[in-house]
Structure prediction request, 309 residues.
Amino acid sequence: MQERAGVRAQIEPIGRRIIRDHMPAQHRELFAKLPTLLVGSLDAQRRPWASMLAGRPGFVSSPDQRTLRIEALPRAGDPLAATLAVGAPLGLLGLEPATRRRNRMNGSVLALDAAGFSVGVEQSFGNCPQYIQARTPQWQREPGEPAPPIRALGGTLDWPAQALVRRADTLFIASAAPQAGAAGGAHGVDVSHRGGRPGFVGLRHDGWGRSVLTLPDFRGNNLFNTLGNIVAHAQAGVLFFDPQTGDVLQLTGTAEVLWDGAELAAFAGAQRLVRITVDEAFWSPAALPLRWSEPEPAAQLQGTGVWAQ
Prediction:
């Protein structure tokens, strides 16, 4: 990806410097403040999924610079629940929307018990605040209190799920290297944030009725953690959430990067497109115990567009 974009000579030495095998103090401090944690995982078919865990601040802690402890577990029916095991590769994203701070930590599960799990650091790095809508969370109920059951959608999103996609201004995307989980930690799972104006995700259906999402790729740090994974392992998982209701949509599917074409040319601000054909999806009504304030849009969105849907 870096070679095709013409940035490898510039970015490779930067990547080697900023991607660490430990968490600096400011990353550990941020994780400990958060009420949510994004988790990327791989299922038995090696398909990436993105999940969101919630807990009172402090539910994520760092006993040392190479370990995160998460005092929470996924709900029954969440794809993460079926794959969380010692040795499993995970991508973690800590994001504080109110301040637009975000850090990523990719690693493997070191321990798992009835209260939570621990992850050992393999890759730790920060991200810039671009495209993040500033929001403040408020608790609606205690973490762990019952929520309506998760519902399987297959490869075709129903009307509530489609409506959420079409009004979303934020999503989280999970991806993986082909050898994710192999010994040595050189290949792993990643989960990342994407933001845009409401309607920035395109949605249509193919000839078999499967839902197809199109995501614009805006100017970023040129590391291409997500898109590089997709080129090498053509699968991706996406999570949408509704800040007003706590509804969550999780999906996984076949992914590809589009470098040119009329569709790309018509979308303001997009440098590339990512197209995901949904293989499987889950709808979780009121899954999150938090609600968020109305957004303060990111300044970068002034130069971006939306899909005509």
Q: What stands out?
A: The CA atoms of residues 27 and 103 lie 6 Å apart. The helical segments are 2-5, 8-18, 25-33, 79-83, 159-167, 225-232, 262-265. Residues 8-18 form the longest helix (11 residues). The radius of gyration is 18 Å.
